[in-house]
Design brief:
The complex is a heterodimer of chains A (202) and B (176). Chain A is mainly beta and 202 residues long. Helix content of chain A is 2%, strand content 48%. Chain A is globular. The two termini of chain A are 37 Å apart. In chain B, the strands form 2 sheets. Chain B has an 8-stranded antiparallel sheet, with no helix packed on it. Classes of the chains: A mainly beta (202), B mainly beta (176).
Amino acid sequence: MTVSRFSKASLSVPTKYRTLMAGSEAIIPGDFELISTTVLSSSAASVTFSGLGTSAADYKHLQIRAVARTDSGSAYEQIMVRANGVTSAAYSRHRLVATGSAVSSSEGYASQTQMELGSIVGGTGTANAFGAVIIDILDFASTSKNKTFRSLSGSNVTGQNVSSFESGAWFNTAAITSISLDRIFGSNFVTGSRFSLYGMRG
Amino acid sequence: MAAKELITSQTLVSTAGSITFSSIPQTYTDLLIVISARGNYAGVNDDMVLSFNGSSSSHSWRILYGQGTGGFSTSGSSSGRYATTTGANATSSTFGSSQIYIPNYAGSTNKSVSSDSVAENNATGTFMEINAGLWANTAAITSITIADSPGTAFQIGSSFYLYGFKKGSDGITTVA
């Protein structure tokens, strides 16, 4: 008996099987899929999605969804984002922010050592409140484009009400193979913070 | 069952003033357009004007935008200017990031459009916006044209992706 080797090219529709036993259920994957998710069971200084050259090889775009809080000494925190572990001045960052009483876009910076792409809750914010963040990275594996990041986030807690629309860029045409999420002010993301990475086919 | 499906995509191998998604299936509930583009307008950003079913009339929009130095709002009604992207004066090899959401595109009501888009640049100044738009036409959308304007040509490598949100089975929705 000859067993054919399935390859992506040999399938007209990407299909996953729970097992290869006869009669097993076929799962037709969608075009927006969860790649990885982490819910912190203890505090952590940072979270990194790595190995994207393999784990995200089937996708054109990435989306990070996070619900997070830190132990900073204020009600406010900001997520710091880097690509491929690069810590040199290879990034830009920009913000459009609403605080409930004013709109400002006063933050525009070039040649930064990180992007800031998420307004979340800090240590003195309302108890059990976490900020929500969505970050999109289109054509993350392109080798002809610098990498543009777009983010929507916010938190509405005592001492800090922020609705943020932010962007940044990593000025490098290399494919993104890892994304690290860190905090600006606090020491750690707290237990219960969740970070999920999704892939979109294109 | 997958909720969001890629319908089609286009990546430019030569410059083009516009791209068109035609013969859009009417089997989804909503559409999502995701764009990584760069225009040739001599500015940090360039705009993208959409027309539906070949119609450039009955469009209106209102945006909240920032340029790295302040937050502003403006509006218009002469075209479907529903998103922005990076222009020719932005840092080289840098493309914008945009998503445009059109719910109930195949329905018989007027068509709402919501989008968020950024034009990045390695400088203080950039352009980023959140846009609420309306096509005051009850026809189902069967084609979408995205044009570079005020620029005249999207650059090589600009990519456009059209996704559809699938209709799901009910059983959990209660209407009172």
